[in-house]
Amino acid sequence: MAPDPAAARTTGAGHGRREVRRLKVCTVRPGLLFPHAVQAMEIKRRRTNRKTGKVETTTVYAVTSLPPEQASPAQLAELVQNHWSVEALHHVRDVTFAEDASKIRTGSAPRAMATLRNLAIGLMRQASWANIAAAADYYRSQPQHATALLKITC
Hints:
Number of helices: 4
């Protein structure tokens, strides 16, 4: 059986689970509620917990303005996966640093604070921390170790 040219399949493993992602794509007719939509996607994710064997399946639908000649199903699958890595960073910034609750909202200050949060996350990852919340707690209670990451002496 030949592979479907309007589909893509990827697999991955991490965080104690195995994930299979299947993406199906079709072109859409003009007149959709999304005026610039050219392609529609169905993304099915099947996650299997390696310890328990529990299987979880989710289905997500999306549209894109990219035509098929600019974005094949495999390229769309990669774009979607890359988008989730960006979302993961936003999740860490919001959960660990309460970014959404920040009162800093005007001028360039929000962007500067996001940059500082990204720097802190990057430094913690470079220092081999897998759990950013635990790292933030540690450095909050041991500021001299935080300054050592930056090679700053006080």
